[in-house]
Amino acid sequence: MINTFFRLLKLLKKRSGILYILGFFGFIIVGTYRQVFLALVLKNVFDTVVIGSIEKLIVCVLKSLGIIALLSFIQSSLMYLMRRMVVHIIGDLRKDIFLKIENLPIKYFKNRHSGNLISRMTNDIKVVERALSNTIFYLVYLSICAVAVTVFMFFLDFWLAVIALVTGVIAIIFNAILAKPLRVISKKIQERLGDLTGILSDLLAGITVIKVFNLYKNMASKFANINRQVYHDSLKKVKTTAILDSLNVLGKMLDTIGVVGVGSYFVFKGKVSIGTIIAIWQLKNPILNFFNRLSNLIAEIQIALAGAERIFEVMDESEEPKKYQHLEVKIIPNLDKAIIFENVDFGYLPNQWVLKNLSFEVKKGKKVALVGASGEGKSTIFKLLMGFYPPDKGTIIVDGLSLASTELSEIRKKIAYVPQNAYLFNGTIMENIRYGKVDATEEEIIRAAKIANAHDFITSFENGYHTLVGERGAQLSGGQRQRIAIARAVLKDAPILLLDEATSALDAESEYLVQEALDRLAEGRTTLIIAHRLSTIKNVDEILVIDGGYVKERGTHEELMAIEQGIYRTLYKQQYKVLRDVKVS
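== ABC transporter ATP-binding protein ==
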């Protein structure tokens, strides 16, 4: 907890932390002085009333009002300065988390829900912002102010100050005991809220599937279970806070009874003046305010620290390296080869190999298809080529660049990728195509769209290239989304093209248009295709059959069909039989 707190304070270094500290402690000093000054004013006013001097009373009140107004203005200015810096600090933190998530390796996202990360960027940052701008400040301010006025109360009357101090110490002890349970409960609540955000994200992204498969009860049950856990944890938090509140109220009542009772006795005995009693009563207000708000402030700080821990968990994750320096650098004469895999081993988990001793080459400008049953490693080969994972052993060369000695950004510049289900960002069609080349002109974008067979349908929209595609491209059909993705790849103009069966989920008309666009895109480029429908790869230059993590068969369609009992021939016949049966039925 202490480490988390100090890490929060270190955020001040990124901005002019001195300004935050100036506002923070400046307000505390001025505010504390104002409380003591107000008590002195009341003492002087009531003592003057007892004396009966109207002239002195008027002068005292007018001077005091002027000084209090000035102190209030200074306090407001210092508070503005402090909170202004908090706005900058939180903005920087939000940006840092975004950049951190952007640079995390693909494997980080494999077992984590996006909703949980979204919750950390929203809910957790919100509670941290509240802590820096309000909670921590008020806790320190009220604590210092309570101590300062207690010291001044000693100056006015020793025994009344003792009464206030004893009740205060008791309250602090109770709050310290219950602080840790509050932090643990608060962290659980924040984690559960992240899970709820994840379920809501699933609901919004998968609403079609939920409706078609009647998953209402299933989703509602998941939400209800976690929501119930949040409810129970929140009840624990409420109960703990209520105990703190009751103890603090008790302390306040004891303090009030002690000061009023003993103070009245001292007045009757002539040991203190009426003005002194009024001053002490005024000085009790900061102390009572401290007791009243202490439990809530501590609870809020525990929530903020729990949120900060979740944020720092992300910030402490290892980023994707610029290049995989731990790999063995091996020089391979590439000659005319665009892609080289030599003796590559890889597994997502230790000793569970997906690829084993995989070796193959793709010559520049050639079309090569990867074929095999599901789970044999075809998509894994793509992920290795794009640098999402390092191989456990072996050498990978991409257009003459070794994965072991080249920055991943340079490797990825060589590759254009069209997935099976194209992802479009929430924005316009033009913006989505421009992601292929961020400085592309409008003419270049239109040219890419024409090559991708997308220009005609784009211009049929009222807003043309400025049409909003919606979240994940929801406003467009599957074929239209694929053609936008192809236009993006055209614009990138990379020498190597990776196609993950980009037509498998389309109807016949869309498939024809997309396939035609892909053929244009592949012209003059090295193309590696993951093939699910074998009828689409008859004309490629070579087919690699992946089985057991390595290349089991290779050759043209005709060569592989000539192999009796061959894997490719068996797969092709199975697909042909299924298609024939479908046509007959």
